[in-house]
Amino acid sequence: MEGTLSSSLVCSFACSFYAHSKPPAEVFAAPSRADYSSRVAHSGFRAKIIELRFSIPSNTAERSYAHVCYTSRKRNHNLNTEVSPHRAVSAVRLLRIEQGGAFAGLLSNNGGKALKNEMEYVERTLGFRTRDLEDRDIRLVTDIVGGTIRWRRYLDHLILSICNVEKTFRNMEPLLLQILRIGFFEIIKLGVPPYAVVCENVRLAKVSVRPGAGNLVNGILRKLVLLKEIDSLPLPKVEGDERAKARALATIYSHPVWLVRRWTKFLGQDDAVKLMIWNNSDPSFSIRVNPHKGHTRANVVMMLEDMKVPHKLSTFLDEFICITTGMQAIILAGLLKDGICSVQDESAGLVVSVVDPLPGETIIDCCAAPGGKTLFMASRLRSQGKIWAVDLNKARLRVLTEASKLHNVEHVITILHSDLRTLSVKNIMKADKVLLDVPCSGLGVLSKRADLRWNRRLEDMEQLKQLQDELFDAASVFVKPGGILVYSTCSIDPEENEDRVAAFLLRHPEFTVDPVHRFVPPGFGTVEGFYRSSPIKHSMDGSFAVRLIRSCGASS
Ligand SMILES: C[S@@+](CC[C@H](N)C(=O)[O-])C[C@H]1O[C@@H](n2cnc3c(N)ncnc32)[C@H](O)[C@@H]1O
């Protein structure tokens, strides 16, 4: 069959392949019919191959694709024990993330089911099963997937430089590119012995892409090893005008150029680099102990010691424990599932300190779901008082409802599914305190959200700012005279933080800043009286909050 197909059509075929557990259809690129046949032979399905030849509009070269209709599952599934399972799973997961079908975190509260789905995807994509993942493999997948996504721009620069021919790089099968990225990441950033990396990634490319792909991986990885040995990785120099410097820094520290330019402008080059280094480092987590399940922090510390999970007490929040590694063990031990504690960054906990919920108060949590801050505020109310938890997203509110039951705080929380802006027009509720934790860019949490830096665009910022202003106005309506309004973000961007507050105060002279210094530890309050946590200063996520007080005589 001859013709012209758009790349989006190819993509939609490929997506349908991932979406079905029944015998699927897929389209993939391969230079010869023998390659299609080899792939189908490994697939575990009986299949009919229809060959397509077409050119992609953005790419003048004609390419050959196979449209494979898998007709039924073969009875005996191919178990491939030679391919290292964590590499195979990582490659497929990276492919899915890039195609928008998965998130970066493999850690899941419902580990068993998630893992089973994961392995089914791997089997459907590669055409063979690997042995099941052990705990150690899961940790490796988490490290490799997170790291490879973070370092994508840097790795692609090296791969492209070593391929030498841009066409080879651009025309690479998507799975092959992931295998190369993994190999580069393991050699350069994880320091895995090159022999093992070359050998295993070559084998994976051969059996999962096509036999010829193994040779390509072999050649490219060996060149990389050589360049690394002589300390000659082809990296750009930070020189030239602003734009050239930003491009070089963006490659060396693997961030989008627009972010580098923005941070260089707001923070200066040195702090921008420190921030990028933080974003590329392994994320650290903290857990909040839930007292409503009869546990104390000392209790949970003993459990962590039994589990040999390295930890230290938070110096900023009495309920928090910082964990460097071992989250998987905490999940497997059921500490989250049983509501004994929840994962919450200290920076988010300190926003609750800014709100300072007191027993007996009525609080409206305006953008509440999935409820991290609602639950902490509920816990601080000590069963006296009320929280109205408002959110637009029904699915996320369901998570909040379940979590509030799990944490034994559901009696103080009432869920309200609504657009805050519509609710504010009705003007039916007034509260002592109102928390507005607005949708934001999330630029303060890039170390935990490995893929976020690649998904955010400069254009998003304008839309977000407009939404933040609208929600800020809406939230203010619920504050009673003399009451408190807290606006917060998990962003470090002044345009989402200080600038939004300044614009709000111009529109709402009935509010004034109530400095946060008496609510947060020293070092977190700014001269303007705002709360700001900084990854480079406090080694935690970046977040922001302001506490505003409505004048006693003023009502909306
Ligand atoms: C940053 S998240 C809130 C996180 C939450 N406070 C927590 O600590 O878990 C922002 C939330 O705003 C919600 N949201 C966005 N637009 C909204 C609107 N117009 N009205 C109400 N909620 C909205 C989103 O559904 C999302 O759950």
UniProtKB/TrEMBL annotation:
<dbReference type="GO" id="GO:0003723">
    <property type="term" value="F:RNA binding"/>
</dbReference>
<feature type="binding site">
    <location>
        <begin position="367"/>
        <end position="373"/>
    </location>
    <ligand>
        <name>S-adenosyl-L-methionine</name>
    </ligand>
</feature>
<feature type="domain" description="SAM-dependent MTase RsmB/NOP-type">
    <location>
        <begin position="275"/>
        <end position="551"/>
    </location>
</feature>
<dbReference type="Pfam" id="PF22458">
    <property type="entry name" value="RsmF-B_ferredox"/>
</dbReference>
<dbReference type="Pfam" id="PF01189">
    <property type="entry name" value="Methyltr_RsmB-F"/>
</dbReference>
<dbReference type="InterPro" id="IPR029063">
    <property type="entry name" value="SAM-dependent_MTases_sf"/>
</dbReference>
<feature type="binding site">
    <location>
        <position position="419"/>
    </location>
    <ligand>
        <name>S-adenosyl-L-methionine</name>
    </ligand>
</feature>
<keyword id="KW-0808">Transferase</keyword>
<dbReference type="GO" id="GO:0001510">
    <property type="term" value="P:RNA methylation"/>
</dbReference>
<dbReference type="Pfam" id="PF01029">
    <property type="entry name" value="NusB"/>
</dbReference>
<keyword id="KW-0489">Methyltransferase</keyword>
<dbReference type="GO" id="GO:0005737">
    <property type="term" value="C:cytoplasm"/>
</dbReference>
<dbReference type="InterPro" id="IPR023267">
    <property type="entry name" value="RCMT"/>
</dbReference>
<protein>
    <recommendedName>
        <fullName>SAM-dependent MTase RsmB/NOP-type domain-containing protein</fullName>
    </recommendedName>
</protein>
<feature type="binding site">
    <location>
        <position position="437"/>
    </location>
    <ligand>
        <name>S-adenosyl-L-methionine</name>
    </ligand>
</feature>
<keyword id="KW-0698">rRNA processing</keyword>
<dbReference type="GO" id="GO:0008173">
    <property type="term" value="F:RNA methyltransferase activity"/>
</dbReference>
<dbReference type="InterPro" id="IPR054728">
    <property type="entry name" value="RsmB-like_ferredoxin"/>
</dbReference>
<dbReference type="InterPro" id="IPR049560">
    <property type="entry name" value="MeTrfase_RsmB-F_NOP2_cat"/>
</dbReference>
<dbReference type="GO" id="GO:0006364">
    <property type="term" value="P:rRNA processing"/>
</dbReference>
<dbReference type="InterPro" id="IPR006027">
    <property type="entry name" value="NusB_RsmB_TIM44"/>
</dbReference>
<comment type="similarity">
    <text>Belongs to the class I-like SAM-binding methyltransferase superfamily. RsmB/NOP family.</text>
</comment>
<dbReference type="GO" id="GO:0006355">
    <property type="term" value="P:regulation of DNA-templated transcription"/>
</dbReference>
<keyword id="KW-0949">S-adenosyl-L-methionine</keyword>
<keyword id="KW-0963">Cytoplasm</keyword>
<keyword id="KW-0694">RNA-binding</keyword>
<feature type="active site" description="Nucleophile">
    <location>
        <position position="490"/>
    </location>
</feature>
<dbReference type="InterPro" id="IPR023268">
    <property type="entry name" value="RCMT_RsmB-rel_pln"/>
</dbReference>
<feature type="binding site">
    <location>
        <position position="391"/>
    </location>
    <ligand>
        <name>S-adenosyl-L-methionine</name>
    </ligand>
</feature>
<dbReference type="InterPro" id="IPR001678">
    <property type="entry name" value="MeTrfase_RsmB-F_NOP2_dom"/>
</dbReference>
<dbReference type="InterPro" id="IPR035926">
    <property type="entry name" value="NusB-like_sf"/>
</dbReference>
